[in-house]
Amino acid sequence: MILKHTSPSVLVIAALVWCAAPASAQQASPLPGGASSLQETYQDWQVACSVQGQSKRCALSQQQSQQNGQRILAVEFAPTAEKLTGTLVLPFGLLLASGVEVQVDDNAAGTPMTFRTCLPNGCVVPLTFDAASIKRLRAGTALKLKAVRADNEQPLTFSISLKGFATALDRTGSLLK
User: SS3 sequence, the chain?
Assistant: First the structure.
């Protein structure tokens, strides 16, 4: 499977994160240059912000697609003061009861995270990282995901590049201020 990183399409996944994490909304202060929306790229990560009425919402995200453009996975995070919350969208065909193991580089994987639901875009896993986990993400090279295929119960792994993650996270935080 050949992967390429693509910029988010007006953040389809953003609606998931913004609905699941209203704490990411801030009282509206202008974006740079008085813009009402902003999209920037930091290596493999994208930062997007928009001002709507009295609230400003910002998130960092990454999508991976096959060469034919079919999306394989999408992840989006919205930082808060103490943690990083987000949403992971994985393809259909996974054994939902097994959840998804998440690890940074070769560190030990934690308890599998559970799927919340499946939507037309794929199956959704809510993510939350504490301060210690954020520190590992900042220093890491890859966020590794382990799931199980539903058809043959064989393991399936995904890797999300962390190139540019720390810079994108810092930028998202500064835009929210």
Answer: CCCEEECCCCCCCHHHHHHHCHHHEEECCCCHHHCCEEEEEECCEEEEEEEECCEEEEEEEEEEECCCCCEEEEEEEEECCCCEEEEEEECCCECHHHCEEEEECCCCCCCCECCCEEECCEEEEEEEECHHHHHHHHHCCEEEEEEEECCCCCEEEEEEECCCHHHHHHHHHHHHC
pTM: 0.82
pLDDT value of residue 50: 94
Amino acid letter, residue 72: I
Which of these, 99, 97, 60, lies nearest to 78 by C-alpha position? 60
Mean pLDDT on 77-105: 95
What is the chain's mean pLDDT, rounded?
86
- The answer, yes or no, to whether residue 59 has pLDDT greater than 90, is yes
Give me the domains of the chain, ranges plus CATH numbers. Answer: 4-176 (2.60.40.1880)
Candidate from 29-33, 77-81, 103-107 with smallest mean pLDDT: 29-33
**Dihedrals φ, ψ of 7, to 5°?**
-75, 150
Given this model, what pLDDT does residue 135 score? 95
The CA–CA distances, whole Å, from 166 to 18, 27, 169, 173 equal 21, 24, 5, 11
